[in-house]
What does this fold into?
Amino acid sequence: MQKIAKDAFVIVQAGYASPLIDRADVVLPSAIWSERAGTLTNTEGAIQIANQAVEPAGEAKPDWEILLLLAGKLGKHRRIPC
It folds into this structure.
């Protein structure tokens, strides 16, 4: 694994604490598996539904929502017609 340069600006999107978060300039708190709904594909190729069990802690959000908000701030969010 490569080391991060000391002068690098580091943004981390994560659901758990780690040494990388300690190094980050910006942390985007991501909801963990029990805090979001979605689907999973198992090793046999079967799709499984995952229901949200609890509300995200603090300011955590699902990954898709973090990316959508970031795209909006960057002026890159477009509505997709239904």
User: Anything to note?
Assistant: The first strand starts at residue 11 and ends at 14. The longest helix spans residues 63-73. The chain is about 20% helix and 20% strand.
